[in-house]
Amino acid sequence: DQQVKQNSPSLSVQEGRISILNCDYTNSMFDYFLWYKKYPAEGPTFLISISSIKDKNEDGRFTVFLNKSAKHLSLHIVPSQPGDSAVYFCAASAREAGNNRKLIWGLGTSLAVNP
Amino acid sequence: DTEVTQTPKHLVMGMTNKKSLKCEQHMGHRAMYWYKQKAKKPPELMFVYSYEKLSINESVPSRFSPECPNSSLLNLHLHALQPEDSALYLCASSSTTPADNSPLHFGNGTRLTVT
Q1: Nearest neighbour of A107 by CB, restricted to B41, B97, B107
Q2: What is the distance in angstroms between the Cα of A6 and the nearest Cα belonging to chain B?
Q3: Which of A23, A77, B29, B96 could crosslink A19 through cysteines, CB 3.0-4.6 Å?
Q4: Within an 8 Å CB–CB cutoff, is residue A69 touching chain B?
C-alpha cells in the first residue's frame, strides 16, 4: 500500500504561472518530507525539505507547505519556467528501530511548463 | 555536473557474466546508498552504508553484492542476474547518517540491461 501518494501523474502549466504539486501521506509517524526533481537520464536532485514542526519552508521560487492534520503537503513553484519541466518526487521519512530512517517515495508527478 | 560519479553510464551483460558498478563521491559524505529505479517508478532502496559499514540491506537477492572500500567509494558487484534486473541503478550519498535527515545527492546512474 502506497504510504506516500502523488495522485496527479502529470501537470501542465503556462510559463510564468504557479505550479502546484500535491502529495498525501498515510503514516502519521512521518516527520520529515522532501521534494526531489528528476530530469530524464539524470539522478534525482534534492529541491527542498520540511520538518513536521513547521508548516512552510521557502527557498527562492520554491515553497513547500505542510498540513499535518490533513496529512498533505504541496510544492509551489512561482513563477514556473520551462527549465522546471521534470518529474517531481515527494518523499517522507520516519525514525525506525535502530535509529535508522528510510525514505518512502511517491510515484512522481511529471510537470510540463509550456513557453 | 553531479558530485556523485557513477561508472559505467551504460552496461549490457549476459546472465552468466560478472560485472561491477562503481560510485565515487568527494564531498566527505559518510553515508552511501544503492537504489534501483524502473521506468515510471520511484527509486527503490537496496543498500545503505554508514561510516563504511553496511547498515541497511533491503532483502536484496545475493546476486547483488555491495562493497564499500572506503568512505568515498561504493561498488555493486553483479553476478548471475536475471532480465528483470534490468533497470537504472542509482548511487547516492548524504553528509551524515540516514538518521539525521541530510538530503541525498544522487549520481546520474548506470543503465543496466541484462540479456
Answers
A1: B41
A2: 11
A3: A77
A4: no
Q: Count the domains in chain B.
A: 1
Q: Report the distance separating Cα A5 and Cα A25, nearest Å.
A: 6
Domain region containing B86 = 4-114
Segment A41-53 shows an average pLDDT of 94
Instruction: Check CB contact of B40 with chain A, cutoff 8 Å.
Output: yes
pLDDT tens, position by position, B36-85? 999 888 999 999 999 999 999 999 999 999 999 999 999 999 999 999 99
Candidate from B40, B43, B99 with C-beta closest to A101: B99
Cell numbers for A55, please give them.
508548516
CB count in 10 Å sphere of residue B101: 18
| Calpha distance A100→A82 (Å, rounded) | 38
CATH number for the domain spanning B12: value is: 2.60.40.10
Query: Which domains occur in chain A, in start order?
Result: 4-114 (2.60.40.10)
